[in-house]
# Entry
Amino acid sequence: MAATIPSMKKSALLGNLTPDVFMRQYWHKKPLLVRQAIPDFSPLLPKEALLDMAAKDDVESRLIRVARGKWTMRNGPFDKLPSVRTPEWTMLVQGVNLHDDAADALLRKFSFIGESRLDDLMISYATEGGGVGPHFDSYDVFLLQAQGQRRWRISAQKDLSLQEGMPLKILRNFQPEQEFVLDPGDMLYLPPHYAHEGVALGECMTYSIGFRAPAYQELAEGFFQFMAEQIEQPGRYRDPARRPARHPAQLDKDLLDKTAAMLRKVSFSKKDIALFLGEHLSEPKPNVFFDPLEKPLRPGRFRKDACQRGLHLARKSRMLYLGEHVFINGQSFIAGKTDRPALQRLADRRILTGAEVSEASDDVLAAFHDWHVQGWLRLR
Ligand code: SIN
Ligand code: CO
# Structure
């Protein structure tokens, strides 16, 4: 499992910049082309394995084709695909990191951005001339060339209007400003809303390390749903001073005033927001299902093995923390002061050595066993 690059250490992955310099100068600001970001890179899984994944119903995939300027898009799963000799089609497979260890390890090389922002590894396979057209994304992306060559054309244009009636986002007026041909191991970083178009020069595979930035509307809706489960408002409306109604259907002013006064008393703190955000951001996507172990170990045996071999988070697990709160797969826990280091280390590094597990308290070991039974945590 890849370790995070220390923020002050220069890294080939970032064109010999430190993560610190990359974040200050490029992240969310301007593109960066890195030749040989991963020298001698070769695909982590063969195209056959990737296309097999696109046949599964727990994998999100899309087939995009273009012919004489007409775009078509179909969502997977796919039991039949066009021939690899047919030009101008591309298959996008989302969340490959959830299904493959090497893909997960590649995604983790980008943990320096922060787990709350890291989304997934998407892999595209394209035949000659294939691509998804000129477009922009709402998120930052690192585009790593894995096999073959792809020509990228990019533009800082402000006109991001889209062609109407298309099954996917295609820019109406793409004005490329720069062009690069990427070979395996080369990588292009693009900030959000940067116009780009990647065209396969022969068969090729491109890996997109994608990020997420929740829309404020999504956060607000989610937060008020979360609060709906937290609030407690005792009492009931009372009106001992009521007088006979002259207009029986008129909304009652006293009821309105008292409701408004009651709602003004509902308050929420930053702690409520942190709880919501941790649960929300650690919630697996709706198509993610854990595979509970067929034969989970009994607590005593689990403890013995975990103390010897160590533990690691399952690929699909999302774990975050803040202060006393620990979030895993949409659930939150309060951790005592002495239990926090082990839990926070597990969340940051996704791995604990046997020696580190041995130092965990009985409560933490009981939680680990529970998570092991649910398929969230695995023995190394
Ligand atoms: C691709 O890999 O074909 C598409 C990636 C992108 O443009 O964001
Ligand atoms: Co894109």
Remarks:
- Residues 12-211 form a domain with the Jelly Rolls fold (CATH 2.60.120.650).
- The pocket of cobalt (II) ion (ligand 2) is lined by residues 135, 137, 196 (CB under 6 Å).
- The two ends are 11 Å apart (CA to CA).
